[in-house]
Predict the structure.
Amino acid sequence: MNKKSKFALGMTSLFLLLLCSPLLFANAASAATYSVTINTSFNSVSNGNSVAITEDGVSTTFVTPHTFSDLIGIHNFTVPYEDSAGHPFFEWGKTAQSNPVFTTITTSSSGTYWAVYDSKVPRQSQGTVNAVSPAEQRYYVTPSDPAVVAAAANKSWNDILDWIASQLTYNFSDPIWQFPNETLSLGSGQCRDYATLCVSMLLSRGYTAYVVTGNVTAASGTEIYSETGHAWVVIKLNDTLYHFEPQRTLANQPSPQNFSSGYFAEYFNDNEALYPASPSQDPPATQTYDITISTQYSSSSRDANVAISRNGVFTGFTTPHTFTGMNGVQNFTIPVEDLSGHSFIAWSTNTPGERIYPTITVSSGGSFVAVYDSQLSLNSLWPAEYRYLITPSDPAVISAAMNKNLSGIVDFVSDLPYAICAAPQFPNQTLSRGTCLTVDLATVCVSLLRSAGFVAYLVEGANSASPNGTWVVVSYNGTFYHLDPHYSWENQQTVNFGSYQASYYVDEKGIYPAGISQDPPLNVIDIASGQNQTSQVPEFSSTLVYCTLALVLMLAVVLKKRIKAKKES
């Protein structure tokens, strides 16, 4: 662009600026400004304790009372939930242009706005949910209260709903707001007490949940409607808010059309703040079922009273117990031993899937019985009882495994002499007497491997020699390999592992579904000569060697150049 073109462009820009400036100044002059004064009132007395003021979400560094001048448009002013003396925010005064129950008000014209603080959290009410200030309801949600934490006791969200509905009775006469620990102690309460206890327990378990304040009309079709105020809960599940009635179990929630037509939310609160109500959905319309978990002994129908876990979380219940309102797929687990040391052996024959594991998976209703052995017998071991024959902490096992690597242990076991006996042996017996049965070789091999720091399991399944054979799997460098303890390490390559079909794994802690394992690698000597997993030494690769040489060469070149430069100077 030549000088003439640049001059012409500059003159054109100046002309447009002069042409539009009257319009710009006219618009600025015509914008109305206003002033807002934010102040506090405490216990009906003006000019309460000073509190910080936030404008449009940003701290202003000003405290009450303060006047904001030359404001244009809409502005939001926020005060804290407590003043400097710990008095709770109650609501804004009557001059507030927006909903006065929230700590934030919206203004668009001049005025003085009073944030009212209460002398203390009120306890006396007239029996309605509106008697306590909405902003003060957060004090009645107490997820850290020890009584609440104990009551939540690893319960899932639907367990909490069912538990509250079954444990509390409605109190129609008590006008006192109750803290959740008081509701637990009394075993009764009103709708607000059901809701605050439910949300407290849910928050204690890590769920996102809120107390809902609103009203329920006759259109809800329920007997709990109240035109003057009602409280229920919302729970966030899979990033979606669902509303629930805590006075009812999950299986007996109001039908979707009743929730939609009769429940009207005004605001939410948790233990931290009050929020405008957000859209929430009806509980998912799913088919529910009931599950009863009980136990008995092999020679007695007496229940073992063991703890029950569901989906990996302890429920707080012991057998026998019925879980209601279940939906989808559920996993129930009982311990491998009862409190008296009796071993779990199997579930009742009506149990779906494998019965030999402490965990069962169900998707429909039923009553399932876990059987515990009245007395351990080595002549008739159940799959879960083989764990008693794996003893990595036995002194004889520790001594035998000492200073042996993987191949050393396998070779040692395969060389054990044979003996004559009628029942499986414990590893220390096998080490002293010799091996009687195939299972003896497997249990002593696994015991030695685990004592040496390896991850190893006894395997039961079918092979070419027996439909109920036993062998070993061991993890090395993150890969599971199957081994037959009849053979030395060098001879593992001669085994036709293609005919070995694993059914389950066992260690000293429990029984597990079989995983995937590989044949021992061709370079068996290389893998066997390494140390076990607790003391592996990294190997130098050729790439590392080349990189090291390249680095040395580069340093030599740099050093040579510096010496040359120094001589020339």
